[in-house]
Design brief:
The complex is a heterodimer of chains A (379) and B (324). By secondary structure, chain A is of the alpha/beta class. Chain A has ten helices and ten strands. Classes of the chains: A alpha/beta (379), B alpha/beta (324).
Chain lengths: 379, 324
Amino acid sequence: MDNVTKTNSSNRRRRRPPGREIRIFTKYAPRRAPDGQALSCTTDTTLRPEQLLDLYRYLKLTRLVEERLVNLYRQTKVVGGVFRSLGQEATAVGSAYALQPQDFLTPLIRDLGAVFVKGIRPREIFAQYMAKAWGPSGGRDLNIHFGSVEKGFIGPISHLGDMIPVMTGVLLGARMQKKRIVGLAYIGDGGMSTGAFHEGLNFAAVQRLPLLVLAEYNHYAYSTPTSLQTAVRDLAEKAAGYGIPGHIVDGNDVIACYEVTKRAAESARRHGGAVLIEAKTYRRKGHAEHDDQRYVPQGEIDWWEQHNDPIDRFERFLAEHQVAGKEQLAEITASVQREIDEDVEWAESSPMPDPEQAAYGVFDNSIVPPALRPKVLEK
Amino acid sequence: MATFVEAIRQGIWEEMERDPTVFVIGEDVGAYGGAFKVTDGLIDQFGNQRVIDTPISEGAIVGAACGAALLGMRPVAEFQFIDFISAGFDLLTNYAAKCRYRWGAGIAAVFRGPSGSGLRSGPFHSLNPESFFLNTAGLKIVEPSSAYDAKGLIKAAIRDPDPVLFFEHKKLYRLPRLREELPSDDYIVELGKARTVREGRDLSIITFGATVLTALDAAEELEKEGLDVEILDLRTLAPLDKQSILNSVRKTSRAMVLHEASRTGGIGGEIAALIGEEAFEWLDAPVVRVASIDTPVPYSPPLEDYYLPQTKDVVDAARKLAAY
């Protein structure tokens, strides 16, 4: 690049972003509860009662699937690690619920709720974790590392940040195909330190693609606190570096997450242009089940569990506004539990993959033969 | 008469005309037409929605190509110099290469750019990067040595359902020696097939890219001494055309692998091992490797000439191989 003469030809048709001031919206940012009162959710919403109960179902599904995965892990039925989103389920569920069916999302490991909202069934997740043949990757990859283009779900890979430029490409392709879709890519306070994050968001912003980046400030990246990842106070400040608007949302308020994402998606769909949303939340479990969280100050996890659990807050909201009684919520929970039982049974009944399947699918095998283990010194 | 660079440009142009999902993405590929003019004029014909100038951001180029491919588009992504492929390495090796294997989503994308040494371009504009990728399952690797092959291979690469790395030796772009009349019909050169450039009885030189010409020069000289050299142009390095390599060695019983990348860990070792395992009984001499020395690519002409395998190195090695 450095020995090539640059021309000014690329300037000839560039539109400038509207307004160059730093724009961070905080309407749905976390607020303290009035003295003596417990936190609930925002009332500034257009969600109808049946939608609110739908959200409740996804929150419970996420938490209970993860709890079941921990049980299966302890029974050594899960082959790899289990990654929890305990305490931050509202971020994934609320934001994903704001998308339209044709939209795409790419989650991170702590966004299982978003995967369910996109129509992936618990049985697929159980089969993936148990490395079974019937899982969507046939045992070739773990947990939510798969995708379904039909459903608009692009699974992540372990390399954080990489999915931002990939989702940018999905939107670039959609624009060429004249499809009006929005892409939602999740990232964390840790993943935002990667080069891929920067490269992807910068390119999306330059191309004014309808990319929503949802940055989950959950305080820890493995054991590293956010103060060792970045010098900004709010991750949303980084939006200014890309000439795009930023939002700060209370990540443990499922309604707020929905509303902010919905507004961002509408603006992205209407005008084009990327948006950065920062969700303030808290990771109550370790990086994965093996992590003893010795790096967390004493009392911190308990405080979040007692005062700022997203499901507790939403149940309080549903009660306060007479959306549903205790019995109705218990019924939803029971039906979620039944679905989980059925799906675990299905996943357990799946065989393990045939070993030779390891050799297939590197390339289109109608063109390139499978990479079968060669026989040594045999003709 | 088309040059090597014109052949590649024609290939991309024809594919863009044929298939509306084909698009070009890279740095300075639009109005400027690319650093080596491979994409010259495409933006005028196909517009800036299908010829996309990017920031200096190889991660964005590779990632965006992958994402668009997931939606059924067929990106042709350019690295301005192939040396900069290192800045897109993660997304190439972890995303593009593994997507089909992980969940059946083949990434039908071409990642191309000018490679190769010998143009006094120093350590950062002279790379032959094939070895970085040979050990990554899921990437096809192509490197043509003639204008005919360049056009046929780029068209085949664009139509391929899997990710293809396409390396164009920049020394060949405008080399008068490679100008040729190209067929006017729509043709492709199938990936994964080597080509016998010169038939011979006495020894095989297995090579690809610009060193095919080095081998041809050496063969001409050796012919005067009565040595009949066979030259096999691999054309595709992954997946490797093992059968053509073994057929040639079984015929001549003497093999040299010639390439421009450094010797250690180069594709020469892989090919020598293949011959050792599968054609041992046919060999009358050890398989020899003629390659660049194990250093970065130096800038100054005397240094770079010492670094690179020269015709005389090939001639010397061939004489010893024949006399063994």
